[in-house]
Amino acid sequence: MSAAKRLIPLLDRVLVEKIVAPTKTAGGILLPESSAAKINQGTVLAVGPGRRSLNGDIVPVSVKEGDKVLLPEYGGTSVKLEDSEYVCWEMAYIIFRDEELLGVLKD
Fold it and tell me: What is the pLDDT of residues 8-21, one digit of tens each?
């Protein structure tokens, strides 16, 4: 089981794997960081059960696992997860509150 699948967000939080900009071209040329485009998209890996309303009901999150989402430029909490096959710290995992996500991208 991957490290991301072992993390279950609480309440209305959503675990997102951010899409990382490519660091080299198809021909193998390395791109400088200054030319890398900012990509504000990600894939939902896990969702919490939802938040509680004032009367105690659960309000489910508005996205589901596998959704492609539009992310805010700032915000969220970066999470380092250890991969089980080999020790490698991934920086592309971010936890957002459901209300912080800007939208769902349809194919």
Answer: 899 999 999 887 76
Tokens of 66: 């596998």
- Give how many domains the chain has, as a whole number: 1
Task: Please report, for the domain that includes residue 84, its CATH number.
Answer: 2.30.33.40
26 within a domain of the structure (yes/no): no
pLDDT at 86: 42
| Residue 28, in any domain of the structure | no
> What Å distances lie between residue 39 and 19, 32, 33, 45, 87, CA to CA?
7, 15, 13, 18, 26
Question: Looking at the chain, which runs of residues are DSSP E strands?
Answer: 13-18, 41-47, 51-52, 58-59, 68-70, 77-82, 89-97, 103-105
Q: How many helices (H) and strands (E) does the chain have?
A: 1, 8
